[in-house]
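Hi Y.,

Following your request, here is the sequence exactly as I used it, all 107 residues.
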Amino acid sequence: MEVRVTSLPEALAELLALLEAQAPNAATAQQDALATAITYQADLEQLFVENEGEMPGARLEQNRLRRWWQYTDRLWVVYEVTDRRRRFRSTIRTVTIVGFEAALPGA
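Below is the corresponding structure, written out as tokens. Let me know if you'd prefer a different format.
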């Protein structure tokens, strides 16, 4: 199975905002958030590929379209998984990161 990972621009903006808010030093918060976001994005892509989009402990929303996975103690990744089966070839699974949250809804 081929796994492709993408992120919506809105998700990246949410990630930056959360990381800036959590930064210990206000003077360098924006710069630190950007550096951390780049590292997180690369790590998340690798993790999703290694796990074929099936992240251990992920929680499904009621509509079963979106999934929530706790990446760090203060960061949840909201994502969707779609599969496209190709005739006589392997399946392409696309993981789309649609958002980042500090906590589960209702938590």
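The longest helix spans residues 29-50.

Thanks again,
Q.
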